[in-house]
Protein: Dienelactone hydrolase
Organism: Bacillus changyiensis
Amino acid sequence: MRIFELLLLLSNIGLFGLTIMIKKGERKVKLLLIASSLSAILLIIHLITEGFRIQLVFLYCTSFFFLAISGYRYFKKSAFQKVSRFILGTVYTLIAIMLMLSAASLYAFPVFELPEPTGKYRVGTQTFHFVDKKRKELFDQARDRNRELMVQVWYPATQPSGKPAPFIAEGSMLKEEPLSKTFGFPAITMDYLKYIPTHSYVKAKISTESRSYPLIILNHGYQSSKVYHTSQAENLASHGYIVASIDHTYSTFATVFPDGRTTTMKTDMNQIAETNYRDKVGKVWTDDITFIIDQFEQMDTGKIKTPFKGRLDMQHIGVFGHSFGGAASYDVASDSRITAGIDMDGGLYNYHRNPRMTKPFMFMFSDITFKRFNEVRQHHVYTDEEIKEMGASRAEIEKEKKDTELEIEHFKHVAHHGGHILYLKGLTHYNFADVQFITPVLQHTGLTGDIDPTRATSIVNKYTLSFFNKYLKNKDDHLLDRPIDQYPEVKLVTPLFKK
């Protein structure tokens, strides 16, 4: 909650109390006029410095109402003696409701701050548009186009100037923001996201402290966006990595291209659980990643003109992602150019193949996801009551168990080849993305855990950084070797999958 928003709310609550208490007396009425004038000044300062947002429209109305009423009451001292108690009571009730709605809106839609990056570098960012001329777009057959991708890059910077980039820039992406659709409120209610700053500076100069920096490819979850992993990318960049986050076109809530075109979801939400369709979409994502690595190779040589010529350590490439992006990270990790990877709370696609992962890899699960995998690992037999709670038939559960067993074979293979498996107690699926900051309502609906979002991000970022430092920079802090008191939420369970 921003300071002038809070002061405006408190001033209106105070004005409401004064209005009810003041009955007669010129001095008291004058006090109300002064107080309402100060509230109006707060409103003006808020609009100038913090900006208008629709969530506060009732608060704006009450501010104008109190100023108008106090002025009228001061200059027309006998006016309110003629107003019936019923009318006054109705007005006071409406004001009380408007103030409660304003307070609820401030709670539900806070102008939050992304966590501060923990590294020594400032962070720069640039966005690139790539067209893969070797692939036709599969998910928009109405247009004969090649596969197009938008990629945002975060990197260590020096001497940035100007203001940090916004979390979500004002434009068509906000019109497609998924939370408004999920909860059924107008898209304009998410317009305030344009006020949230990041810690990245557009086109800042790349730091010259190191000759080159390892490259990490970041992949969002299904029906998500690269913007929802900004804090992860910024943190890695602040520690000396170049992070390229891909928008997997037609599997995002919105992707905006330089010419203003905006694409939305076209991959089928209902079919994605079906093996063949999941593998089809997955292959597109895997091919997206290998294509983007190709582009960065050309950036490093200077064939594609960017500030990153000669600045990319292409011998040390990491890949990670959340949910379906985590599955893509695992699938693409077989590319010989990739050194190590992380899957954050994602199952797998193409899991019917034999496990072949022998390079460093880490699975990082929420406790709910781990519980599901662990029950299958332990050959848990579900009771009729449990199956009823799941809302599925026993036949459906058995089929899902067989698929899950195939995924677990991959986890076991990773565990036996030096990989890491852990889960984070108190986190749920969306605690691995910045969507957790948007509204505390997500906690009440179970989409995020009870853990504070800043704490969740701190833990995820700490273990992500530790993993990549170990395998891309040969800097081992041994965080992945044993439990530590500082992070009791982290449960290292690799040994379970070695049995």
Residues 275-301 form the longest helix (27 residues). The radius of gyration is 27 Å. The mean pLDDT is 91.
